[in-house]
Amino acid sequence: MLPLIAALLLSSSVDPLAGIDGLHIAYYDVRGNSWPAIGRSIATQGMGRAGGLEIAARTSWRVRWQADSLVSGKSCRVVGAKLDYAITVMLPRLRDQDRLDPALRRRWQTYLGELKAHEAGHARYASLHIDDVKRAVLASDCAHVRQNGQHAIDAINRWETRYDMLTRHGAMQSKAPPVR
């Protein structure tokens, strides 16, 4: 299933981040007039390394919920839940692209498209599975509502960890050599 999602995201000519509910895109600036210089600029941004590669982009998300309960005597049951979530994708933005050699600019645009496709895998999965948290909360009794909501969040996190492991943090999805 993961390779299929990755292939679909990479094959699309549409921005892979388009249409993801709750998504906010943030940028950090990088500079360079050569591929190695761009890589050094990414490395200085402090996003870190994983699997031996500089992390150039990152997806984070948060979810909060509030369970509504009905207490009657010694009985308590969850009767509703409100959910609030946000997804943020952090991407590099290459400054002064208009001054680059056209071949380097195309290489950058390809690389950025591949970063977006990989991060869209994270963001889309989280967006599609946020309601799992609500379902877990609604299916809970009052004593286990926090635990069951957290289990649903943990399941999303496990998928994301596996996705990064299988794609080597997107490197296996890329046609462009990594910036170093």
From TrEMBL:
InterPro entries assigned to the protein according to its UniProt record, in alphabetical order: DUF922
Protein's UniProt name: DUF922 domain-containing protein
Highest taxon of the lineage: Bacteria
